[in-house]
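To fix ideas, we reproduce below one chain and its tokenised fold.
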Amino acid sequence: MTKGFIFDFDGVIVDTESKKFKDFKKILKRYDYDLNDFSGFIGKKTSAIIAERFPNMPDSVKKDVIEQRRKLQYSNMSDYKLITGMKRLIEYLKSKKYVLAITTGSERMFVNKILKIHSILGYFDAIICGDDFIPSKPNPEGYKITLRALKLLPKEVIVIEDSIAGIKAAKKIGCKVFAVKTYLKTDDLAKADRIFKNGFDILNYLKTEDI
């Protein structure tokens, strides 16, 4: 029986990944680095992407890149838009007494600011951010911490993800996964249990199915 839902943040609740990728590429170019694999970029911490793609990047450059990326992330925050239908989905699930949480590699201050802007901060029973765990998805550590905070078993939650790394992380610990096609194609998300267009699509499904 499903008792709770765990949402990824970037690309599931808020459209942030496109700006993040564009900003990151612009910063990297200043140091003669390039990044083209958007699908492999989604759902991972900046530090993890650097370690994976640019293992020989000097520490001083790495520090500068991360700090510049962070500054751009906090610019024009009101421009970040919610993914279609997600606020309605969150409101519906809360009205049905499901436990709700967020698991994301993003920084807590950033997540809280965005949630406050869109008046949905108070809907979540737990928010586990990059401040709370070190390894990036597909490592499942963030989801393990979230389950402990909610006092739920993997079989009692559905994780909502949009990335290959996020789906792998949730499946590693036995969670059911709903994927949203925010940025990626159906084939990229094939390891999810179900794939949806957006929040409204999930909402319509939940209103007609016994989960």
